[in-house]
Amino acid sequence: MAQPNTYPSTAALLAVLMPALSLAAPQNSPAPLAKRYQGGWCGMDVTQYFSDTNDLTFDFRVYDAIRNEAGGGNSISVPVYGSQSLPIEGLPDSMEITVGYTNDDPLQFSYNGDTFTADQRCGVGKYDGGNRDMDCGFTC
Q1: pLDDT tens sequence across 94-134
Q2: pTM for the full predicted model
Q3: Which residues have CB under 8 Å from 39's CB, separation 6+?
Q4: Are 114 and 139 in contact (CB under 8 A)?
Q5: Beta strands in 26-113, from DSSP E residues, in sequence order
Q6: Which one of 37, 44, 98, 136 is least enclosed by Cβ atoms within 10 Å?
């Protein structure tokens, strides 16, 4: 007489093993923000477009201390004598930009309580082809 199959079914084995396997599997959650950027002396590249309107327009890119891109934006419009918050996805805070009345007034930046002007911490080029470029540094 043949022996009956005494092994558990595949479904029964999976029901027992799946919870244990899911605990051992790597989790795909993103690293906390503080771990995704390198703090220290960060950089920001700014392009300011010459304007004859009441708004000044900018492109910007922000880099962490090891030059990984942390965020940026294009065609950011700021009214004269106004301020605009520039979101930076890869850093814990946003950058605030304040403009004066004319294209030649120095820009003011503020990040995490540190305020500086373009004259203080940026290499500022002259207008060429309708825009000027700036390379800035700040503590992040």
Answers
A1: 999 999 988 999 999 999 999 999 999 999 999 999 999 99
A2: 0.72
A3: 64, 65, 140
A4: yes
A5: 41-49, 55-63, 69-79, 83-86, 95-98, 108-111
A6: 98
